[in-house]
Amino acid sequence: MELYTETIIDLAKNPLNRRDMETATHTASGVNTTCGDHVRLYLRVKNGVVEDASWEGDGCAISVAAASVLTEELKGKRVRTLADFDKAALMSVMEIPTLGPARVKCLTLSLETLHNAISES
To answer: How far is CA 119 from CA 28, 64, 82, 101, in A?
Structure first.
């Protein structure tokens, strides 16, 4: 299997939603200590719905692509449903059939950070 699909490579070079958000209502930071990837996730929630999502950070192609895809997927979703968005859902959206254990941590960094942001609200 080709790990770095065209989509992952494109998102690594041209990330989506990579910006600070001064109007965020929820934020959290996460670090993958295995490889040094780090992310800060921002959500603006109004009436229980994610109006906007963004992120800042650095990491490998998979980590950057996952943060980009995740923040796109969050927009318009109800916060109460976000806990159900898991690794399998993210892999499906990114069209990644399987990953080794080390790469799963890269993929799930932004997802774990999301769950921390919504659990602290």
So the answer is: 10, 23, 10, 25
Report yes or no on 1 lying in a domain: no
Evaluate if pTM is beyond 0.85.
yes
Number of domains the chain contains: 1
DSSP 48-105: TEEEEEEEEEE--HHHHHHHHHHHHHHTT-BHHHHTT--HHHHHHHHT-----HHHHH
Per-state percent for the chain, helix, strand, coil, to nearest 5: 45, 20, 35
103 part of a folded domain:
yes
Give the tens place of pLDDT for each residue, 8-39: 899 999 999 999 999 999 999 999 998 899 99
| pLDDT tens for each residue of 105-116 | 999 999 999 999
